[in-house]
Design a protein that fits this description.
single chain; 102 residues; alpha+beta; 3-stranded antiparallel sheet; 3 helices; 3 strands; rod-shaped
Length: 102
Amino acid sequence: MLTQKTNTSEIIFSPDSSSARPGAWFLGRFLYWDKTLRKSVIALERTQERIEKLLGFLTWVIIFAGWLCFGLWIFYNLEILSANPLSVLLFWNKSNPLILIF
């Protein structure tokens, strides 16, 4: 038990008394981690975060491109669709790259 009065905004690194896991006391709470802190681990985590952000962005680009192709297909076939609205259900009769991308 610490008898010394400490500032509550200080970070104190020590193992937790109950689990012996490494961590730090900050603002009266014990923050712990299971990882060893090395440059390679930090670099891998940053790379993983960047890749996840890039994949998330590419996912939204693909979604936007698909809906854009669907909208263009409807725009190009507007006359046919207004004459016979049920022809939307027969889109597979004629191959179209816009429908393929959608």
